[in-house]
Amino acid sequence: MSKRAMSPSWMIPIAMLAGGPALAADALAKDLTSTIALLGLPCGQVVSAKKLGDNEYIATCKDKNVYRVSVNAQGRVVAKKQ
Q: What is the average per-residue pLDDT within 59-70?
């Protein structure tokens, strides 16, 4: 058997590709959780997020609150309860 067939190094890029979107979604949920908390709104933890456009997201919280998080004309991040 060749060394290449025995080496698991070929699996690393495949694992990175498979896990990439999940890691990005997890990072987005964490960022939105922090943003909503810094704005002083109740949430706890964002469990799902959907991108609507550039700098605009719908975040669903563990406590069932749903927020539209976006950047306003003045460049400030705002969250509006849906």
A: 96
Instruction: Output the pTM of the full model.
Output: 0.71
Residue boundaries of the structural domains of the chain = 3-81
Q: DSSP letter for 82, please.
A: -
- C-alpha distance across the termini of the chain, in Å: 60
DSSP states of 17-81: HHHHHHHHHHHHHHHHHHHHHHTT---S-EEEEEEEETTEEEEEETTS-EEEEEE-TTS-EEEEE
Q: Which of 33, 34, 27, 35 is nearest to 60 (CA)?
A: 33
